[in-house]
Amino acid sequence: MKQDMTIKWLETVDSTQDEIRRQLKVLANLSVVAALNQTAGRGQRGNRWETRPGENLTFSLLLRPGQDGIRPVPAADQFLLSEIATLALFRTLSDYGIPSRIKWPNDIYSGDRKICGMLIENSLLQENVSYSIIGIGLNVNQVQFNPALMNPVSMSKITGETYDIREVLDRFLGHFSEELDSERPLIRQRYLSHLYRLGELHSYTDCKSGEVFEGTITGISKRGLLRVGMPDGTIKEFGFKEISYII
Questions:
Q1: Is residue 240 within 8 Å of residue 104, measured between CB atoms?
Q2: Are strands 128-138 and 57-63 parallel, antiparallel or unpaired?
Q3: Are 140 and 125 in contact (CB under 8 A)?
Q4: pLDDT tens-digit profile of 144-169?
Q5: Is 174 exposed, middle or buried (0-12, 13-18, 19+ CB in 10 A)?
Q6: Which uninterrupted H or E stretch holds 131?
Q7: Helical spans, DSSP H, in the chain
């Protein structure tokens, strides 16, 4: 499918995510909008994505499951899109010799430092995903970060090398196409095999109660909820914004 992807590079835009939404009616399936500079990039939890112009890879991809030979994605299984995108990023970083793990639901960490964030916005029609806008910010060449950010890192900061962000995007799109065509049970298995902190005892905060506890990530549910072994021996499932990692 990579050969069918249209990439539009912009010098400056408020947000590639918003640009795709503005052009939604005219953009083809698997269209990509990438920008050298985002003035209002958005991340998860309503956060702003901080990036230096031209140094990092910021882009959004429009996917319409169920069209153009792409299998439909049931609304109940929409976490599959997070799995596909994060696996493609994991493979991209591996191409450059950079070790990484997938921090649930869809951040990418190298060690205990964040190298990539993702914002996936799905639109549902009846029982299926009508379209998905997958926004990704990958730290590539930036080596100085705002001190207020907790734990950022970049490809260049890890390896000391400088990268062509267009080439990095091409590699990602190739891997994304392959993952999109993969058997879905295998996608889940690979996602779990690269999951950050899987099977390890660490501290977390229950965002509903404010309680800090020690738990062990045991996996994810069919719907993509995080399954954590609790101090009392039970398994509890957490949704997005219901648990915070203490790093």
A1: no
A2: antiparallel
A3: no
A4: 998 888 899 999 999 999 999 999 99
A5: middle
A6: strand 128-138
A7: 16-22, 79-95, 155-159, 165-180, 184-193
User: What would the two tokens of residue 52 be?
Assistant: 């230096």
Of the CA atoms within 13 Å of residue 156, those in its CB half-sphere come to 17
* Tens of pLDDT, residues 110-157: 999 999 999 999 999 999 999 999 999 999 999 999 888 889 999 999
Number of neighbours of residue 230 by Cβ within 10 angstroms? 14
- CB 98 within 8 Å of CB 155: yes
- One DSSP character per residue, 4-30 reads G-EEEEEEEES-HHHHHHHTTTTPPTT
| pTM to 2 decimal places | 0.94
Residue 27 burial (CB < 10 Å; 0-12/13-18/19+)? buried
Helix, strand, coil content of the chain in percent (nearest 5): 25, 35, 40
